[in-house]
Amino acid sequence: MKFSPVVLTVSLLANAALAFVYFQQTPRVPRGSDTQSGPAPAPRAAIARESDVAAALRENPDFVEAAKSGDPRRMREALVRAGFPDPYVRDMVTFHINNSVTPERLALLRLQAAKPYWKTTPSEETLALQKTLRELDARNSALAKDVFDGKVPPHPLEAQNQQRRYRFLPADKIDAVIRIDHDYAELAAENRGAPTAESRERMQLLQREKRADLAQVLSPQELELYDLNVSPTAETMRRQLGLFQPTEQEFRGLFEVRREFDEKYSGMFGRPDPATLQQRAADLQAMNNQARALLGEERYNEYQRAQDYGYRAATEIVTHFNLPPANAVETYTLQQTILQQAQQIQRNAAADRTAAATQIAALLDHANSQLTRLLGPDGADAYKKTGGTWLRTLETSASRSGSTAPRPALRPTSGR
Amino acid sequence: MKSIPSLLIIASLTINAALVATLVKRPPSSRDEVYRPPSAAVPDAAPTVHSANGAATPGAITIAATGDPASATSKTLWERIESRDPATFVANLRAAGFSLGAMRGAAYALLRDLQTAERTKAVESLPVEPYWKATPSSLASSDYAKEINRLWHERDRTMRRLFPEEQEAFVLRQQARFGPLAVEKLEKLATLDRDYGEMRMELTRSSSGLRMPWSSDQQAFLEQEKRKDVAAILSPQELEDYDFRVSPTATALQRQLANFDPTEQEFRDLFRLRAPLDEKMRAGGMAFANTPEAAALQQKVAAEIKSMLGEARYEDYTRATDAGVQSAASIARRLSLPANTANDVYQLQREMQDREAAIQRQQTQSPAQRDAQLAALAAEAQQKLSTLLTTRGADQYRLETGSRSLPILERTGTPRR
User: Fold this and answer.
1) pTM higher than the cut 0.90
2) Across the interface, which of A25, A252, A385 has its CB nearest the CB of B26?
3) Which of B15, B68, B78 to mutate to probe the A interface, most A CBs <10 Å?
4) Partner B, chain A 341-370, Cβ-Cβ below 8 Å
5) pLDDT tens digits, residue range B2-26?
6) What is the complex's ipTM, to 2 decimals?
7) CA distances from B154 to B33, B111, B224, B401 (A)
């Protein structure tokens, strides 16, 4: 190539000009770690940004005054006027009111951090500070409600979870249902504490009112879907019926059968009186009869079996030891048979207690050998430690059959 | 060989070409001050962000970094103050004069916003089952739980970097748990706690809610592994202190001895006697807890504790570890009742037990007369308990203890677990 001073000069000038433009426009690129702590912006951009923010604040003295006032209501109003998004307004105001790193709270943490491990009794200073902070929390909670005109908006993450929870409802109704849930959850929280007859009545009243509110928002079909998806009965059924694997039709049928019982006996506390216990047993029997009529004999047996703790444990064991699934079913059948036989022996025990003790001991031997056959030695051992509570009852019964001590009642198990 | 000027021209032209290509390829948005979290939380395509009036609108928030007064006047105050960079955002709010709490709230909201895409992705990864299908706990995907945990810790770390008060609170909380250790060690222990906590949760999930023996073995294995990891962080002396603070026996003792006020030596001796028993009870589970062997072991340890403490202090220990006294003490603290309330409840328990036994021993009265006396005694116990703990506290006491510590209350027919 022939040397040309002109070409070289022009090219070098172009180098300089392009480099100038390049460095002028180079953005502040956040580095991985910087993103956490706030990277230093390119000086010119930062200065421009700072001056813009300073100008913005100068132009809005009311905003600055509200920010500095510390008055949460003024702060909220100023933030809303300034166009801050609702979740930011919520968090800024609630964090301002309930700041968890105030000097008092840090002082309490310091006391707790300085406490030697053997000092199990909180110091007077700690107790006093805890009391002050409890009182402050109560005042702050009321203040936050007041600032948001009676209701602090739900946490945005909670709102997101709720959207998912109610995905079966039309999109335009979800917010209304979430609001109803939120309102009644707050009212229920106010009712918390040691359960009493009055608190149970209040809870039942709240449930009725909540349902009336939901019925105003949802169509009958949507309300039915709401019940099938999120009611306590539906949630319990999904938890209990994993091994039963109901069809949609079976689930709906069982739901209807079980809901009435659950509503009648939910929230009970204390030891029920004998009449209530008797009524509950009769209602349970009626409910099971309805389930049997609905499912048919075979599926009903599977339904009961699926809810049995011993069967669930046996299922876990056969899976863990890679045994045939039928062995879990056979273990359940063994359990039912043995308990029926033991019951029979107990009924006849009055005639000859010593003979009864011998018979139950023989039954136990048979049960143990069958369990080892079905689940293997390790599986049988695991079964006795988990699902085999009936075996322990049988052992106790065997040891007492020869004595006059009261015997534990033996009866075949059922899910509900 | 080419001459030096020729090489200079080639080099200069190459640099020009590279600069032109870079400038042409640079996207316009790169000039904007957009925070991108480390794991690309803010997608380029239509993330959810908020417009000035707070409504969710599609499109990335961008802030012109030029400070152009013309564009500034057309923006809302929010648009001029906000930044996707947490440190800048906090600095802007500080300049406005906001309180620490308000700035923390703003930073928290921003960090949550920045994680929207990751969180949504995690939530959407959860299986969606129709209502009639069972939802065993294992379906609450561990990946989901891990991701949500990770996002929470990422927010927590950033908040600590932004606010020294947050960092101080974190360190103090860890010191309250692990003792006066260096910050670096506290951070490592907190991370270990979190990691092993996740693994424990995973085990619980995979066990379908049943406590099978192999789950206990796996839990025990996890504990052993965790201890090895802890031992690698701490010196032998620090490890001993760690056991006195964090082990299951230590935490149980700290809870149970709240009214005993042990000396350091007493605490260490009690720990030494109780730890092997606790270990056996944990390993054996419910199946072992109800055996005569377990009862004998408990009696043996009780005798050793009595011998170690002496009569008087053992009486204090018995009172302090009584379930009724513990419940009364915690209620008294919550309701700001006098400090000696728990002791008074203990005396009431003893008095009522003695009087109930005396009534039961009476041979000269009919069952109906005895029942009437017991009913009157129950009413008196209820009234005295309410005087000591308030009505609310008395209900709570009965709920927590199931009336086991004051059995006469069974006859009054009010709250019980």
Assistant:
1) no
2) A25
3) B78
4) none
5) 466 676 677 777 777 766 655 544 4
6) 0.73
7) 21, 9, 28, 41
